Amino acid sequence: MTTLFDSTATVKAELNKQSYIASDEIATIVYLAEKLGKPLLTEGPAGVGKTELAKALAKSTGRELIRLQCYEGLDESKALYEWEYSKQLLYTQLLRDKLNDTLGKADSLAGAADKLAQEEDVFFSERFLLKRPLLKAILSDQPSVLLIDEIDRADAEFEAFLLEVLSDFQISVPELGTLTAKHKPLVILTSNNTRELSEALKRRCLYLFIDYPTLQEELAVVRLKVPDLNPKLAQQAVEFVQRLRKADMRKSPSISETLDWANALVALNASNLDQATLEDTISVLLKHEADLQKAKRQYINPPPPQQPKSKNNYDEFGRFSGN
Amino acid sequence: MESRILQLIAALRASGVRVSLAESAESFSAVDIMGIQDKETFKLSLRATLIKDVKDIPTFEKLFPLFFGTGAPPMMGGNPSDDMTPEEAQMFADAMRQFAENLRQRMQRLMNGEPLTKSELEALGQLVGLNQADNLNYQNWMAQRMMRALAFPEVREALKELMEQLAQMGMSRERIAEMRNMIGQNMQAMQEQINQFAGQRLAENLSDRPRGDHVDSLMNRPFQALSDADKKLLGHEVKKLAAALRTRIALRQKRMKSGQLDPKRTIRANLKYQGTPMEIHHKDRIKKPKIVVICDISTSMRFCSELMLSFLFALQGQVRKTHAFAFIDHLESISEDFSGANADEAIASVLVRMPSGHYNTDLGWSLNDFQNEYMDTLNGGTTLIIVGDGRNNYYDPRLDIFSVMARRASRTIWLNPEPPALWHGDSDMPKYAPLCNNVLKVGNLRELASAVDELMVG
Fold it and tell me: What is the pTM of this model?
């Protein structure tokens, strides 16, 4: 197998060409995963560019991106393969004459059965196998990038199907035997960390945790993706987003939301982050009513300081509830 | 280098990170590929292969520099005694004469900017019992003890005196300031060196520690007799229990089929029989498990509330529709606290928010709270689990509410750390028990495990 990248610097440069700004950490671990031929498990909050990483990797290597979106109830027949019975039947019907020819020459019933058995392979061949994403990635003639998205949404049982694919890059189909990958795909798994993945799965992967970017990194992303935004405003905007992330929000704004916001600011032709602009556009960043209220209170219209919020010790029944 | 990596892995394991053999082997191949020239890359290649969980990253970040620190002693600030003029040297020697011999040696050493040697550090460590400790939390404390053994505070005092003396003897102010600056830096460097050494030694001891696999014996020990360290160890077992519970529920779901035919799936499945319906498929009744847990965390239950809460935490991670409540004198929903990823923090936040008092357990009132606000969480298919000892301080047990709750839930199970023989005094257990489908004694983890089995069988 040829290697795709010859150093971490190449990874970084190639990803950069696809407008994906990779930190040293990301570049190193991606490079390592590719070198070791191991799947890469990326975890982190929603919207930090985990899926984007797989897309950028596929583009930069010129490989096809095969994506498996996981959800509760995803099963083998939707992720691995399924027999295409209708096609099998159709072929049997159409090939009836041909079968008669073959079997006609046999002189006994046993002979005919033997002959038929020789042809059995025709009916259980890859021809009739409906390829689902995992099998497609394994059998693809061209090397590919396999993205298994949001693995934590799938049931714990589903992880077991993945184990064989991830460790040996092969799939066992009972009727056909074991199908081994022609080209090892580059596998990226993403998880939002809503539940703990099994030890067996984690053991087979390299681990990359992508956190919210630092101010400089995020600024670089905004500059790259929204070049029309003026630099001073970009700086202000990113600083504001970073501040929001530090506050205790129900859902912190992600990079993609920062970008949406930046685009909104460009569309509104804003030149400065004043109160009115903030009030108009903050809903692009925050998606929870409670968060919106909180942000408005704290950052946009700070309340006069003489009214400190006192924690009420009485519950709604008027009972004193703790000291 | 290899043995150093192995030591790091052993230390990681001793600090509770699970590192499998395959992973440690992989870390070596990763290091082979990436090389060890660049320290950051080296660290990343180890981290990507060994650490598979966000919450283990801080442990790694803490241990890594201890094993792959600079190794060399930190830079000393400089050597003030080198460039003294003869008069200054004379003045210095005069000023030094007043101090005791051992203080003088140490001060001289700081003046010359000499770092501690390996054997000196070793001896110091021996002196303060560094080799017996294997807990990284002791790093600062050990370092401080080592510094005290070096008479750091006295030396600091003496140096101050020395400077004053020199000033009186007429050394220029700039020279003194310069000297003080360098000595300060030297002292800092030495502290750093000691701190590093202490950390390294502790981490090495940690990696030498035999892995204590006495979880089994802990399973049988009553909750009252568990130390905090034991509880940490058992945390993993508790997580496994919750996973088992979930799997059991999942199995039961799969077997539960209603009679309704699923035509789409049946036709698909029977294509292979030319459309003759040989395999009949029924619609899965989508019945996700629902659990409502009410947990007593009052004083009488405090000894086991931590473990029970960690069980609830794990349960909530496994069964999405879990509503968890805790009560002492009133009821509070704790599901919000448990939505994060860190069990210890979540439990601590609950226990801090609801401090225990004296004789204030009031289940009756808490049930009233439940009735007012959360009754809608109970409906058909919900399993109601109550964890508590039923000791109600002679308040009204509110059996009326409890019986309504029990009727609404499909099953009601009470987990009680006390055996029936102790249900007297202020215990309302005899009154509650008949209303429950099942009352199980859960006095240790083994019993909790069998209770989980029981939960699923019924």
Answer: 0.66
